[in-house]
């Protein structure tokens, strides 16, 4: 079995509110993923001392994780959705509108072709086409060698800065 999943890592700068409000952030993340048709199946929250928090929502389609740095006005978000009909960027747009309406965002798109082996994932004929449909650059044809003791990856990431849509 082979499949394409889409993951976007985002840095949201200029956050002016909600970075210390775990309940509001959890509600916002839930609403954002549900708006794309995702199903929340669990959640976890960690508060740091003196400030900051991480919220993870576990989805039937994968996950969304938010980590705050209130002292920097920064929110990091990791969205992974296994359903190609769901759009990570729309999830991120909703979150940015709530926490940093005048801020900026940098997205790192990570398309993933999943299979039993890295070779099968990167040679899957439809992997590159699916990645492009998801708005990502094509996957590399050859997986890179993992660093000593590390993991391999099947393709490059694509980084772009996105202003808040009108």
Write the layout of secondary structure elements.
Layout: E1 3-13, H1 22-34, E2 40-47, E3 53-59, E4 62-69, E5 74-81, H2 88-99, E6 104-114, H3 118-123, H4 127-133, E7 158-162
Antiparallel strand pairs: 1-5, 1-6, 2-3, 3-4, 4-5, 6-7
Structural class based on helices, strands and sheet pairing: alpha+beta
Distance between the termini: 40 Å
Helix segment count?
Answer: 4
Radius of gyration: 16 Å
In which range does the helix fraction lie? 10-25%
**What kind of assembly state do the chains in view correspond to?**
single chain
The biggest sheet amounts to: 7 strands, antiparallel
Order of helices and strands: EHEEEEHEHHE
What would your notes on this structure say?
With 166 residues, the protein is of the alpha+beta class. The chain is built from four helices and seven strands. The protein has a seven-stranded antiparallel β-sheet. Strand 2 and strand 3 (53-59) form a beta hairpin. The longest helix has 13 residues, at 22-34. It is elongated, with a radius of gyration of 16 Å.
What structural keywords apply?
single chain; 166 residues; alpha+beta; 7-stranded antiparallel β-sheet; 23% helix; 35% strand
Provide a concise account of the structure shown:
The protein is of the alpha+beta class and 166 residues long.
